[in-house]
Each structure stands twice: as C-alpha cells, then as structure tokens.
Structure prediction request, 331 residues.
Amino acid sequence: MVIVIGGAGYVGSHVCKYLGRAGVRVEVIDNLSTGNRSSVLGKRLHVIDILNRRDLDSFFKENAADIDVVMHFAAKSLVSESIDDPAVYYRNNVDGVLNVLDAMHKNNINNFVFSSTAATFGEPEYLPIDENHSQKPINPYGRSKLMVEEVLKDYSSAYGINSVSLRYFNACGADPENEIGEMHDPETHLLPLILQAASGRRSDICVFGRDYDTPDGTCIRDYVHVMDLYQAHEAAMRELITSKKKGAFSYNLGNGSGFSVQEVIDVARKVVAEDNKTIKVIDKPRRCGDPARLVADSTIAKQELRWIPRFAELEVIIRHAWAWEKKVAGL
Ligand code: UFG
Prediction:
C-alpha cells in the first residue's frame, strides 16, 4: 500500500487517482487545510495533521504491516507567504516531515517519495539546471525543502530510509479525464490565473515585469504537466519497492524548454478563442524574488527513472487546464 500525505491537494490528488488506476492500493492522509475532499475520488481519507505527532504515530503503528511506500505532498508552497511568515513554513515543511520520517523509522517503513522544488536552486548560475547545480535557495520555502533533502541523506545513511526527492519546476495542467485539477485558494500561479481571466472568474491577468533579460522581456519558466509528475512518482515508487534505489536520490522534473509569460498568454489566447473567450492583460512591475529564467535539465530522471513526459507540449497542458477551468466556472 502507498500512503499519500497531501493526497487531497493538486499534485497529490492526480498521483492518487492514477496510482489507483495502475492497480496500486492507495490511502490518503490530509488535514484538508488547503486540499479538497472532493479531489480524493473515493480513496480512503484519514484526516490527520502531520504536526499532530500522536495521531500520526498511531496511524503508522496500526498500518505499518501494509505500508510499502510513503509519498509526501503536504506542504505550504507559496514563495511570498513563506517570506512573510517563515515560521509556518519551517514548522509544516520541516518539522511536519520529520514527524512523518520518525513515525516511518519507528515502524520500519523505509521508502519515501518527497515533493521538492526548483526553488531549492535559487538564482540560476547556468541553464538548463541539472542536479549538479548548486542549491542556494533565496526564500524560506526553498530553504525548507532543501533542509528536508539534506535530512533525507542523513536518514538514509543512519536509518536506511530510502528516498527519491522530485524537484518540480512549474507544475500545471489537469487530469485529461477532467475529474480533478488545480484548485488553490488563493490562486497565485500564472496559468490558472490566465484561464480564470478567460472564463470570467477574474477580470484580467497581471504580467509581473516586461523588463527582464529575455527575448520578450517577460520571465521564462519550464511548465510540466501534472500527469507527467504522476508518471515520475510512479517510477520512483517502483524503483524503491524493487529495491533498485538504496540511498537518497534527487531529480529535476521539467520539459527542458522554457516559455515566457507572454508566450503562455499567447497560447492560452489561441486555445480560449475556440470558445470565443478573450484574456485582458495588465502590465505590473516585477514581482519580488522572481528569477528571469528557470529551465530544467531532466536527463538524469529520464535515464535513471526511465521518465518519459507524455504531455510536454504547452498547448496540450493549456487545453487540459482550460477544460478544468471551464468545468469549475460552470461554462
Ligand atoms: N506571473 C505573472 N502574473 C501572475 C502570476 C505569475 O506574471 O499573476 C509570472 C511570475 O512573475 C513568474 C511566472 O509568471 O515569472 C510563473 O509564476 P508562478 O507564480 O506561476 O510560478 P513560480 O515560477 O513563481 O513558482 C513556481 C512554483 C513554486 C516554486 C517556484 C520555483 O509554483 O512552488 O516555481 O521558483 F517555488
């Protein structure tokens, strides 16, 4: 059995749905602080907060014999919020994970898949960013995730907990069957905001900065489909279960091609035009802490996990996200 902590959230819910589809027994732990009960899609849900050590310990003690792998998605993940309130980030993203790892260790559960982030790298020194790139995060969110990556190395050598940390670049898209999708509140991510401007759930989209050192002046990011993130988690799980992976491993997950904010808006405009929708854009100054370019080199994930992104095209990503936005907006 796989325990998915944070399985009611955006990436976690897609992983749960499709692991279940692949025949894997999945149960969810979530405190429902940002996740949605409706995204769990019939999987068994245990409403437990990872900061509640007692509840977590008793869950793991009761279920230890059945648990093969723990996947951890339950994180606070907004960069600006992490700068304003770092305590919440270190408490949840570090302390909370330590509670999980300690409960695993006590109960002899040794396989862990961890959601990490491009934010562990900070300002890029070269592109695309591979696993050898230095990790100098520039905000508490990135630091909280890097701390856990370091903890995992020590827990591997001392306690034999094997782990795979998957560093997502810009997660986006939605379930191609349109049952689940991105549902953050508040929403801060570019693509869902663009599509909300198209559906009428908001009046416009702000472009934060047109004076970056990029061809059109807007920031470049590597957008990776949530279904491809699912594939990477499944591959990591299989490597751990078959004991091919012993140690603490980290992989960068992106498509290796960067798109500017303006390019994302242009492709979205083309997609929503098929439904006679338009997108109003307002130019704003730079948002604090945004690097000009972030693009992943995922060669190692492709080689070692045999990860093959199937939805790498930006237009496909946007089409799936638009189908979901139309459903949420009742169009
Ligand atoms: N952007 C806008 N307008 C908006 C929202 C975003 O122009 O309304 C721009 C941002 O300035 C940035 C790009 O769109 O250049 C993407 O922004 P997102 O907020 O969608 O994503 P980020 O790249 O800031 O964040 C992502 C992940 C974080 C992770 C970070 C690593 O969502 O979890 O990459 O740097 F920390």
Summary: The chain has a mean pLDDT of 97. Residues 2-172+223-253 form a domain with the Rossmann fold fold (CATH 3.40.50.720). The pocket of UFG is lined by residues 77, 79, 117-119, 141, 170, 188-190, 193, 205-208, 219, 221, 261, 287, 290, 294 (CB under 6 Å).
